[in-house]
Amino acid sequence: MEEKQVLFAGFGGQGVLSMGQFLTHAALSAGKHVSWVPSYGAEMRGGTANCLVTISDEEISSPITENPLMAVILNRPSLDKFENKIKPNGTLVINSSLVDREPRRDDLDVLKLPVNELADRLGNPRGANMILLGAYLEKTKVVEVEKALEYFDVIFKGKSEEVIRKNKEAFLAGVEYARQHW
Amino acid sequence: MEKVLMKGNEALAEGAIRAGCRAYFGYPITPSSEIAEYMARKYPKIGGVFLQAESELAAINMVYGAASTGARVMTASSGPGISLKQEGISFIAEAELPCVIVNISRGGPGLGGIQPAQSDYFQATRGGGHGDYHTMVLAPASVQDMMDFAMEGFELADKYRIPVMIMAEGTLGQMMEPIILRDPVTPGYEKPWATTGCKGRKPNVITTLHLPPEELEQRNRYLKSKYDLIKAREKRAETFMTEDAKLVLVAFGLMSRVAKRAVMEVRKRGIKAGLIRPITLWPFPDEHIVEAAENGAKLFLSLEINMGQMVEDIKLALNGRSRVEFYGRIGIIPNPEEIVGVVMQIAEREGL
Amino acid sequence: MKVVAKRPESLYDKKFHYCPGCTHGIIHRVIAECIDEMGLREKTIGVCPVGCGVLAYEYFNFDMLEAAHGRAPAIATGIKRMLPENFVFTYQGDGDLASIGMAEIVHASARGENITVIFINNTIYGMTGGQMAPTTLIGQVTTTSPYGRKPELAGYPVRMAELLATNEGSAYICRTSVHNPANVNKTKKAIKKAIQTQLEGKGFSMVEILSTCPTNWGMSPLKALERVEKEMIPYFPLGEFKVKE
Q: What residues make up the domain containing C234?
């Protein structure tokens, strides 16, 4: 697999950092080289959060990039900030519940899903990030969905069974959405 | 071997514990606080001492006291906090007390910001406080390095009776990478100088006061001979594709990985570029620089997250042999694409 | 022949460098006697200040460290936390403890740090040549208060024993004097009590000792002792301020 860099961006509190951590854990469990670099400090306190995940079969030289191959965008300011930075012909996943405009670029593979509505329907508003992640992995296969499910318990080690169950449910709802709509 | 995903700051703290460090004294400051928090969680369970001091001044002096008993001890902070510690570091260097001091560095001057930077290069490599002294300075570039250098730091500190500083950009403390957990070590250094109570021996005195001028000069000469020994033995650097390089990038810490990526990219475009990554910032690995120049490097490009502090050391190493240029940012780590652009521009201008 | 007085083992056989009439020497001896009598010499670790006591390690016959100005309580904290079975004390003057080291002493006390502090209060900076201290009395002439300390310019003298007694972590706080033999004896009793407090693990202990500086006060040794009684004790009353049971 070519080195892939994925940016997750949204409001602080949307679970942006933990989405990235989940993917990092899952990719590591699947035998990949990984790194997870969060934005921290003033930017985070200003209300937006993002993290960059790098996944590769080879040792990772730079865990930092200006131009990620993929971006998972959870709110409008993040789309405004990062749309132009995605690599040509890259992938853009958008939470259409909170992003009220269309992407301007036409070279990107744009995948939209109304995450917050789906989460509300599940009765699990805090599961929005896992829905998005499930859909994202089902579509991109950055890590096989089966692999991710296999490592769920390891990744959520220390969390209650109830929390793990709810997260898994949300994740699978995202997988299902991608199968039907993407 | 199984790898574990860890944050840089936590890997460093865990490395210190595995090196036998049993005391931590510190004061909270972003972006280093995870180290203190890790120790606060761990030490009560394994019989170590964690103490949140009232100030950086107090924290470094608690390190002074604890190190004087022969124990392995550590403190960590960031830019402004490291400035406050400098009084104590000068005393510790003179008293020859082994310890590890961590700077998870951010941008200055003054309060600056909390974003990643390498702006404390001068402070770290020139001693930092008053008097003729040095601390050894290690610059990790990965989360694995954070653990490994913490362990290595305590070995060097005990071996040379010197404070060792680990300096890492804020991002390195915050980011996660999988690492191999190293086996714990048992510190094996005799410390007959430690102040532990004089039972069965003559009293030990730890002092940094030398009023007679001859004694003071003798003391400084002795310290210099120790620093010369460290310079002769402990310079460390990683080189990458420097054998035939016409243009050599010099970068340390996380920045060096960005630079490495840029070297790989420009090589694809036919530019003979290479990289030197200083691992010890003091002593500075000047021989690696000279060797690259002897191999035909016409130009050295210092890449830093500051305004060009390391340029001086590269120039001193080269002593006029090759030219040195600089590119840097502050509060932000330049990305590989940006460095590729800079390198291509230089290559075009120089006809490389 | 019966020995009625001898040099304590905890003191080297060495002449003090202190000025004639200065009470540092008496206090060193009292500390050494207490440590000997309590059988603690081989367990003791002392921390010297910056000030006239900077060279105290030249006189005490046990493990000693020299601290940066004001930081002795932090160093003692580091030692005591690693070696809780040892007896750890600091020896500090008023500039060191009450001025530049105010944060360290207040927090050592607040933490209930199980160390003992011997605080020498002579209302002046001795080693640097007679400048104003935080304990300098109102009207007292020093090289940096040449017209006498004026409260509107330099505020008021700090009463450390009273201040630290308010901290929950303080287990034993006492102020004594060494201006006559009766008070020297009381000082010795107080130091023993402070040491005992530490040995029992009760927390922070301090004995503040009113002391003289004939050289920088510009007085004869005898006059200096009189000043302690007439001018200092009225502002810095003697007695125990905190005794934790």
A: 24-243
